[in-house]
Design a protein that fits this description.
Layout lengths: L1 H21 L1 H20 L7 H10 L1 H15 L7 H23 L4 H28 L5 H20 L4 E2 L3 H8 L4 H28 L7 H23 L6 H19 L1 H11 L1 H6 L4 H27 L1 E2 L7 H11 L11 H20 L4 H25 L1
Antiparallel strand pairs: 1-2
Helix pairs in contact: 2-16, 4-11, 4-12, 4-14, 4-15, 4-16, 5-6, 5-7, 5-14, 5-15, 6-7, 6-14, 8-14, 9-10, 11-12, 12-14, 15-16, 16-17
């Protein structure tokens, strides 16, 4: 009996150790994020993790996160997009321009209708510019670095032309709700319950399909442990934000986008082809993958998510400014790399990019609460980014 018990314990320990080794980079960034929260909480005497700051932290990360989840497939295919910050900024300016200078003349007193039209215009603008850049990169074979660098400069000029060097107000109530609104507490708990049920349903469904098609199943307790942890995180998040004002609408929109992007990346031909191209472009070509078409749609998707981020930015800031979107491209790229997206292509996850975005925002927020000078904030974020790239190269060599 003792021998069987010891063997069982050793088996569990072996499985856990194997899971840890296989996902060490992911676990490392989660531990780093927790360490950052603990450090700033201690330095601010607990103010850092109070419900209000916790709620604002997640709201502040949304724009960067929209850009980061779009950047993952871009980097995975071996490309880069330096224009995402200015594209989101340009979309925010366009939305503000229509809200403040067009609809007040054409459709006055139609707040909800004009907001919906402005949002659609913003999404369309981002998508069309993404398509244009994707066409030049994929079909005219101009390197993505050059195309998007030129795009960044062009969009910066376009922002100055639209704004005429002035700030454009975009603080209409209907638009402000998108990035500044909250859901009632009971709605938050309903959403949490639905998510937890779906997590367990997905776990059992996934195990059933793997068994049906003869794939090797992970130990049941490991799948159950992961599901319980995620369910606990969802419930804990809802509990904390409900202590302030409830679930933030932009965070809910981000969660929907994350689920959609995760599905596209993991469960569609488009997503699998993106990883194949980044892993070995020549092998992907010989396997019949239409590389040009795939890269074109990767940048189109990136443009659409820049549109989403730009709408959220206009709603959150309440203005279209000449500096709109400045620096967001670096935060988005840094978030992806921190989250485990390989600079060499072929590897990266949407979930990792969200954790990376949360780390970047956590660092910025914590340093601001401590009144650290902006120069030191840039220095710290730069060091963290370099360390993340070093870790990526190190772990890839080890494997």
């Amino acid at each position: 009996m003792n021998k069987d018990s010891n063997a069982s314990v050793k088996g569990v320990a072996s499985n856990l150790a194997e899971q840890l080794r296989a996902n060490i980079q992911t676990y490392a960034i989660v531990v780093a994020m927790i360490a950052i929260w603990v450090f700033f909480s201690a330095m601010t005497e607990g103010r850092y993790v109070k419900p209000q700051n916790f709620s604002n932290l997640f709201r502040q990360m949304t724009v960067t996160s929209f850009l980061a989840i779009g950047m993952v497939p871009v980097i995975v295919t071996g490309n880069i997009d330096l224009s995402v910050g200015k594209l989101a900024g340009f979309v925010s300016v366009v939305v503000a321009y229509f809200q403040a200078r067009i609809w007040t003349q054409v459709l006055p007193d139609q707040g909800l209708l004009t907001t919906v039209i402005s949002v659609l215009i913003g999404l369309t603008t981002g998508t069309l510019i993404g398509m244009l850049q994707g066409y030049v990169i994929a079909y005219l074979r101009v390197p993505s670095f050059i195309v998007t660098l030129g795009g960044m400069w062009i969009l910066n000029g376009a922002i100055l032309l639209v704004t005429e060097g002035k700030t454009i107000p975009a603080n209409q109530p209907a638009l402000s709700v998108i990035a500044q609104g909250y859901l009632p507490n009971y709605v938050g708990w309903i959403i949490a319950t639905i998510v937890v049920v779906l997590l367990f349903y997905n776990m059992f469904g996934s195990r059933r399909k793997k068994h049906q098609y003869g794939f090797e199943l992970a130990p049941f307790y490991l799948d159950l442990l992961k599901t319980v942890i995620f369910a606990g995180l969802v419930a804990g998040y809802v509990y904390v934000v409900n202590l302030y004002n409830g679930i933030q609408i932009p965070v809910l929109l981000l969660a929907i986008a994350v689920v959609a992007m995760s599905y596209i990346s993991n469960n569609t031909r488009f997503g699998r082809y993106a990883y194949a191209i980044g892993g070995n472009r020549e092998a992907a070509r010989l396997s019949g993958v239409n590389i040009r078409n795939n890269i074109f749609w990767v940048f189109t998707l990136m443009g659409f998510l820049c549109g989403v981020g730009g709408v959220a930015l206009a709603s959150y800031v309440g203005y279209g400014t000449i500096a709109a979107g400045a620096g967001y491209e670096l935060d988005a790229i840094g978030s992806c790399i921190l989250g485990g997206t390989s600079t060499l292509g072929g590897e990266g996850t949407i979930f990792g990019a969200i954790i990376g975005s949360l780390i970047m925002t956590s660092l910025t927020t914590g340093l601001q609460i401590l009144n650290i000078q902006a120069a030191w904030q840039y220095l710290v974020k730069g060091i963290v980014l370099v360390l993340a790239v070093f870790a990526d190269v190190y772990f890839k060599k080890r494997r």
